[in-house]
Amino acid sequence: xxSGSRGERNRExxxxxxxxxxxxxxxxxxxxxxxxxxLSALLPESLRPGEVGIGDDAxxxxxxxxxxxxxxxxxxxxxxxRRDWTPPDDLGWKALAVNLxxxxxxxGEPRFAxxxxxxxxxxxxxxxxxxxxxxxxxxxxxxxxxxxxxTIHSPDRIYLNLTVIGEAPEGRYVTRSGARPGDRLLVTxxxxxxxxxxxxxxxxxxxSDSGGAVSxxxxxxxxxxxxxxxxxxxxxxxxxxAGRAAARTGFVHAMMDVSDGLTGDVRHLxxxxxxxxxxxxxxxxLSDALREAAPFLGKDAVDLALAGGEDYELLMAVPPKHxxxxxxxxxxxxxxxxxxxxxxxxxxxxxxxxxDGQESPLPLRSWDHFRG
Length: 372
Hints:
- The protein is α+β, with helices and mostly antiparallel strands.
- The protein folds into three domains: 1-47, no CATH class; 55-171, CATH 3.30.1330.10; 184-361, Alpha-Beta Complex (Phosphoribosyl-aminoimidazole Synthetase, Chain A, domain 2).
- It is 34% helix and 22% strand.
- The chain is built from eleven helices and twelve strands.
- The chain has helices spanning 15-18, 27-40, 88-105, 125-142, 193-207, 224-234, 240-249, 262-273, 288-297, 301-307, 323-331, and strands spanning 59-63, 66-76, 109-119, 145-153, 159-167, 184-188, 254-258, 276-280, 313-318, 337-344, 350-353, 359-361.
- The strands form two sheets. The protein has a seven-stranded mixed sheet with strand order 7-9-6-10-8-11-12, with helices on both faces. A five-stranded mixed sheet has the order 1-2-5-3-4, covered by helices on one side.
- α3 (88-105) runs parallel beside α4, α5 packs across α6 and α5 (193-207) runs parallel beside α9 (288-297).
- It is globular, with a radius of gyration of 21 Å.
- The model is unreliable at 1-21, 209-213 and 368-372 (pLDDT under 50).
């Protein structure tokens, strides 16, 4: 998510070297987050005290006595979803869910959503209405009003972009940048299920020549755990109540959602906070569904938990003396809460602790749009 102020347009490429940025590397060399940092340097940004711009889950804007949160995410057919795998109502749910998760990661409440929809000529009315019904289901459940947007023709694939405006109750929100050495690293829910669901769909899609939509109902012969992971992939649940409950305690130093994979997201938190992190592999929350699905799919459950994005769980840094208070508040919303590591005073050092106590650098295995 790249939030922040709008800058100058149509700037000439040859001006970059003159501004000291130098010869541009390729996007694959730069990576998604390197590109965001590079482009951010070109944008004017004037923030008032208490406001947050580019680099967090959502932008924070002061408007009178209100604290607003703004986030936007795009989904592109063939990159984020496949129409032949994804029922349109599930896609509508997920398109809104990924934005609501950014609001949850700040401890906020969603208020309004806008959607821009690029449609191909073969996207019929039934598909479009089903997409909107799925989005409306989550909008009602989360009390987020869809108030407008735009529709355009797209020549070869469907394009979706949603923007959500939320609010930080009583001006209280949590960013990625406050983690401190000694904090415990905690995560809601379970990790890896969405990636397992993706692998199940990929396998079924590659075997199918029917051309129809692939869904969890189409797997009558596979373990229930596989179907549960597919449901998690199609309909992630943004942790809005848990995020608000955590923020209300006032004890959470930093928070973000797990959307690109744990190995990458802990790096984002560490970079923004100027700290290091140790992850205990034996403590990763693995659901029964994942433990059943992983061997069936020929995957390792711990690897799925580390690499999997789109779980949309919340990752938090909390001082040790307040862990139980935060746990009690979060679990009162019906969401489990697990300690998986500790924040260290070694900036940029991301370490995994194996079950036998040995330590090694944690490899980066999360999603990057320009590196894959």
